[in-house]
Amino acid sequence: MKIKGIITAMVTPLSEDGINEAATRKLVNKLINDGVHGLFVLGTNGEFYALSEAEKLALVKIVVDEAAGRVPVFAGSGGISTEEVIKVTNQFAELGVDAVSVITPYLIKLSDEELIQHYQTIALNTNLPMILYNIPANTQLSINESVFKELIQLPQIIGIKDSSGKLENIQMYLETNDREDFSILIGSDSLILPALQMGVDGAVAATSNVLTKTDLGIYQAFLENKMERAQVLQESINDFRGILKLATVPSVLKHSLELIGFPVGAPKKPVRKVSSKFDAEICETLSKYKEIEGMEKLKCEN
């Protein structure tokens, strides 16, 4: 499987009872109809760390069913325990996901040998294609060159999502990789265009929950060698990325979806809903994207 294009790192629609099935199906169809190339559930913006096993399985089942093969579905099965990752990965396989994303273990500081063993053991005990997920700012553990060289020898590992925010890291992966069937994906939305210009295959973008057509426009303009247009679109997402920092991830992202007509509920505690004191700033920022995104009247507009 070669992964390309803009893959949305989906938020998880929630209600007081768990996964909001209707809202999940509505969001899946919005994203697919707008043209995304894949759906990435149970990532950082998908609050994987706060969901129960039952909630994870329910979400994956709904998304796979609603996507119905129109785009691939990737699901985060990563955790600290190797045994637990194997269990969840095999459960996801039964539900029909196309590949799993496995974040590096967090909280504990592993040696390179332990990290390699973690991924090798998962690969030996599961059948799904696997995407490595590197986000060292959150896990305090990075997939370095020596680890990467070992892991790309495993054919079951088909790609890496790098959210380090460092283009030199992307360059290292590109120079080290010798497999044509291996995908390198940028996970930092601010670097979609520069990463594409370096040679990555696509982006796993949380901003595309809301700025779907904008992020897709960056990718399409790049393919058509319309670099000025791609640069304008890349720079245009900065204002939205700015408001995402007004509260803890994914609070503002979820609130923004509600304001454009796709209510997905509050984030899981301990993350709080974004304060109403930021409503005017958020609404003003979202209004800048109404034309390109084809947004209807924002919920916050008078």
Please characterize this protein's 3D structure.
45% of the residues lie in helices and 14% in strands. The chain has 302 residues and is an alpha/beta fold. The chain has a single domain (3-226), classed as Alpha-Beta Barrel (TIM Barrel), CATH 3.20.20.70. The strands form 2 sheets. An 8-stranded parallel beta barrel has the order 1-4-5-6-7-8-9-10, surrounded by 6 helices. A two-stranded antiparallel ribbon has the order 2-3. Strand 2 and strand 3 form a beta hairpin. Helix 2 (53-67) runs parallel beside helix 3 and helix 4 runs parallel beside helix 6 (145-151). It is globular, with a radius of gyration of 18 Å. The chain starts with a strand and ends in a 9-residue tail after the last helix.
Give the name of the CATH architecture. Alpha-Beta Barrel
End-to-end Cα distance, whole Å, is 47 Å
> Nearest-angstrom radius of gyration?
18 Å
Overall number of structural domains: 1
**Average pLDDT, to the nearest integer?**
97
> What is the chain-wise order of helices and strands?
EEEHEHEHEHEHHEHEHEHHHHHH
Number of strands: 10
CATH topological fold name: TIM Barrel
Structural class: alpha/beta
CATH class: Alpha Beta
- Major beta sheet summary: 8 strands, parallel, barrel
Strand content: 5-15%
Strand order of the largest sheet: 1-4-5-6-7-8-9-10
Number of helices: 14
Query: Which spans of ≥5 residues are poorly predicted at pLDDT below 50?
Result: none
